[in-house]
Amino acid sequence: MDKKNQHLDEETLFVVSQTFKALSDPTRIRILNLLCSDEHSVNDIAEMLDLGQSTVSHQLRFLKNLRLVKFRREGTTLYYSKDDDHVMNLLQQAIDHATHH
After folding, report:
1. Which of 10, 13, 28, 93 has the most C-beta neighbours closer than 10 Å?
2. Number of domains in the chain
3. Which residues form the HTH arsR-type domain (predicted)?
4. Which strands form 40-41's sheet, in the order they lie side by side?
């Protein structure tokens, strides 16, 4: 069966809708855009985007649950980075679309 015409199961539909939900929030878009290029700690993200640390932590938890970001621990600091190039490509395409004149 052609991949474009395949029937989508409930789990796939749920994951796709959650992915678009993640990309529908301006704060999450800003965080993902920042993580497209490099990894950052929660403190770095909060400072660079002028956001509260708790806000950043909450959004990163949401994104991690969707496997859009991952983290590594160094001592007591968590460093977050992108975990899904497919979604980052979607984000970049949306940004390119929005900035195309």
Report:
1. 28
2. 1
3. 8-101
4. 40-41, 77-82, 69-74
The structure tokens listed for 100 are 């195309």
Give Cα separations from 82 to 14, 20, 32, 60, 63 (angstroms).
21, 16, 7, 11, 10
**The model's pTM:** 0.86
Residue 36 lies in a domain: yes
Q: Using one digit for the tens of pLDDT, what is the confidence trace for 67-101? A: 999 999 999 999 999 998 999 999 999 999 999 87
Give residue-wise pLDDT tens across range 28-61. Answer: 999 999 999 999 999 999 999 999 999 999 999 9
